[in-house]
Amino acid sequence: MEAYEEMDYIDYLMEKAEKIGAKTKIISTETEEGKEFLKGFGGIGAILRFK
Questions:
Q1: Which pTM value belongs to this model?
Q2: Count of CA atoms in the C-beta half-sphere (13 A) of 34
């Protein structure tokens, strides 16, 4: 049997992004843009850029 540490999914994603040097932004739902983002994407989204 293995033991796993419980971690919030958002914290997990932010940690993974930090390890590869990606930038993260938190968008507040207190703004109209934030409300629309939450409604349209469920709260998690990404803009991907490749070199």
A1: 0.55
A2: 7
Cα→Cα distances 20→6, 15, 23, 44, Å: 22, 9, 9, 18
| C-alpha dist (Å) from residue 12 to 3, 16, 18, 40 | 17, 6, 10, 22
Contact 16, 8 (CB under 8 A): no
Q: What is the pLDDT along the chain (51 residues), one digit of tens a residue?
A: 565 566 688 888 889 999 999 888 888 889 998 898 889 888 778 777 776
Indicate the residue type of 51: K
**Nearest to residue 27, comparing CAs of 2, 47, 49?**
47
